[in-house]
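yo

u said u wanted the structure for the complex thing, so here. seqs first:
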Amino acid sequence: MAAARRLKRVVASQPGFLNFKSSSESLSGRRKRVNKNKKKSWNKHSDINDVEEFLEDVRLQERTTGGLLAEKSDDSLFFLDVGQPKRAERKAEPIEGKKRKGKTPRPLRIDLILQQDSLIPAPKDVLAYQQPNAKKLRRISQKAEQLAAKGVVTRRQKRLLSRRPVTKEAKKSDTEANNNPNRDYYDIWGQEQSTVKDSAEDWYLQQTGKKRVKRPEKLSDRPSVLPAVEVIAPGGSYNPDFFSHQALLKEAHEVEVKKQKEEDKLERQLAVNKDDTATEETVIREQVEGLVEEEEEEDEEEAAHDEEDEDAEGGSSLAKKKTERQRKREKADKIKELRRLDSKRQMDHRQQLFQLRSIKASIKQQEQSTEDKQKIRKANQEAEKSQPRRLGKLKFQAQDLEVQLSDELAGSLRQLKPEGSVLKDRFKSLQKRNLIEPRERAKFKRRHKLKYVEKRAFRAIT
Amino acid sequence: MGGLQKKKYERGSVTNYITRNKARKKLRLSLPDFRRLCILKGIYPHEPKHKKKVNKGSTAPRTFYLIKDIRFLLHEPIVGKFRDYKVFVRKLKKAYGKTEWSAVERLRENKPTYKLDHIIKERYPSFIDALRDIDDALCMCFLFSTFARTGKCHVQTIQLCRRLTVEWMNYVVAARALRKVFISIKGIYYQAEVMGQLITWLVPYQFSHDHPTDVDYRVMATFTELYTTLLGFINFRLYHSLNLLYPPKLDSKAECELKEENEEDYALNSECYLEKLSALSASLARMVSSAEEEEAQLDQFPVEGEDMEKLEAREREQKEQEAQKKLFDGLKFFLNREVPRESLAFIIRCFGGEVSWDKSVCIGSTYEVTEETITHHIVDRPNASTQYINRYYIQPQWVYDCINAKIVLPVEDYFLGVTLPPHLSPFVEEKEGDYMPPEKVKIMALQRGEKPAQEQEDEEEEDEDEDEEEEEDDNDDEEEDEEEDEEESEEKNLKKMEKQRSQGKSLQVKVTPGKMKVENPERLEQEEKAEEKRLAIMMMKKKEKYLYDKIMFGKKRKIREANKLTAKRKAHDDAEKANKKKTRK
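structre next:
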């Protein structure tokens, strides 16, 4: 308010003031009488439009020209029009162009937009420069300076100086994360000799339980003989030879065919068997079951019954008791039979002497066959070493072969579109080498069922 | 019968195994922690031979571990750290819940962490052990270093991986250890020879990640945690083996050259140095700056027989390698902005070439396009706008093919806009008699030092080459045939003479002037050898002979198949040529 009033005064003092907008408003009609004895009503009923308009005008002038137009000198407002200075301009432009090409690049459009276009400088933010307790701090620092000039050391300073320096750095390296990008390395394989010779220390560590347990030798064996990095087939080149590319395509095709076959098989097995479904005929027969008498079947059933009865009788007749005589005879027969077999065996033994050659041959054959089997088994074992093992619930599933079809191949390195993901390749390689077990991503299980509720506002519309 | 009753499943293989869940309970760890521990310590699940026995009669699929392994895990100090971490998380949660911020801060400061150094030492007792297992580590680090920093894994891990891979690449450049490169559709395969170990790794293309959903990131991150530690220690050792400073420092001279006034445009101050290192354009600082490498001559020991041959072969190989290391010496490359900068800069520097690129592409460019001494300008566009007359404009595949062929290939096939010859895999090693694509045959001819004259003649020569090979293969058989023929003809002559005699006719006696029998020593030698071989075959036992015939048959079959494939290829090429001609008309 104070500023407005002051400006009003300024206006009064300047009769030749130029307005941007001419105020054509004039008071008409009778003035309404209002009490202006209270500040509130005064504010309410006094008309300050003219003042505000005027102020707006002043602000506009200041923003656009940097001051009031009336205060400007004539030279800054007008210039003498003497036609167009053609040559000078033409010369001036190319110089500018050259400059642009050379060093200073054209500012970005976004920067131009964001630039301040008002000519009034922004007000200084006082708070940004203020310091809490500035006076006190200044006084303290002045006093400290004075004391320092005199050479006096305060008690406080003494205490600070006498305090032990905190070894914070050592602690920091202790709690430093393992993946700190600036971590330092040292020669880990270099200090072997120095540690070994100190046997006393060794004993101490062993007794205090601080010695590391020796790693079992067997752990250094690799679980698979496969190499860490399997290089892709030559057909996987970005610009492959025709035949190797075809070979790779064929391989991929075979894999795909195999998959398709399995799928088809599953589909076939799952398909509905037509023989199992009920036809009209069978349905009717089922409905009529028992209503129509069929004599033939009954006859057959009876016949089956008879046979069974006979069998049962035969079984009971076998369990008759033997007579004494029969027993003796059987025993004699048995002894006789045993003797016969024994003599036969002895005879055979004697005869074997003449069969030596054939026996030898048969033994040789047997040995040969076992050897062959051993070989095969060993080869299988070797082959198994490079196979992924079954380590968990899931079987290892090889990754899809990376293949680009003939029309996908890029003509040059620039247009190459990478196929597959190296991350997945590495992951599968780890699985293939039995370093980790194949797993599935854990499925998200909802504990409670979702409940859908319409909001009231939504229901009101529909 | 006396004695206690034997209980089932208390002896035998069941005592050697433990299920995962039991092991987890024994260690008092949660499943993720258990999994992490197993990965870090290198303990893997086992498949028992008789699952039903081990599983106490049940056939349910389970994961088994060896009980001794788990017992070994019980001694691991990291287990305690894992438990501490669990407690830490619980406390932190509580403090958050109570909004006790000072407690949160205090807890954060004392967050339990662990080191894997002792595990590395334990798992890889010697440096060579570690070097043998580095393939995985490299693949993983290169993979993680290309990840976007979008929260799939810790940003710090990505940064560490980047640092380690840059260090590794700088080492390979300094040691000139690279051997093979293969650009596949998956990524780029590199193979280097470090201290006699062949190390293969796969680098994914930049910006090619769509994160697959069926990969367990936690497991991968654990592996990476281990491998970053391993790779760091290996890098340290490797740098010291070459007398290089570790952590790597740029050569002071190179550093001055790379100093630019507007470095801030490229990277933050903290990352600037790593970026400069990763540009690979400057050499590294050595510990002893004036240590000129003296080529130590190998001691020669007198050897005999087969060892001699082996030694010679080894020497030849070594010479070849030396030559390969200096493949690009003295060549100056300039990379256009559309070619993969890092890969090309890496391999060119590995073989002694100088390389630069446009200033706006990356930090660390050493010279401009306008430099007069540039010999090769690598462009991957159909045409270049402004061409300088004293340099070759070639496609990037040339560099890769040169490395695989171990010679500087002729540039004609790789000019701009020319259809490139196929990029063959250097990881395929053909045995004798296998089918070889004609491009490979051509490269091999070049390696032997034969020069193809012109394009047209080229193809003919190819054919000749193939023919020659076939001839070589068939040589033995032919010689045998020839000798038999000669014998037969002699016999015939004799028979004729006898007939004439028996008929009582006077022989037609005629004296012809004698001819000097020209003895070709090479031919003689060959004949002798063939004769020896024939005799040896004749002297073979029946069993051996059978085996020999089998082998020969297999060889011939292989050759036949290879011939078939070459014929097919020729037919294919001819058809294509015909097509081209048609289209031209």
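The radius of gyration of chain A is 54 Å. Chain A is about 55% helix and 0% strand.
cya
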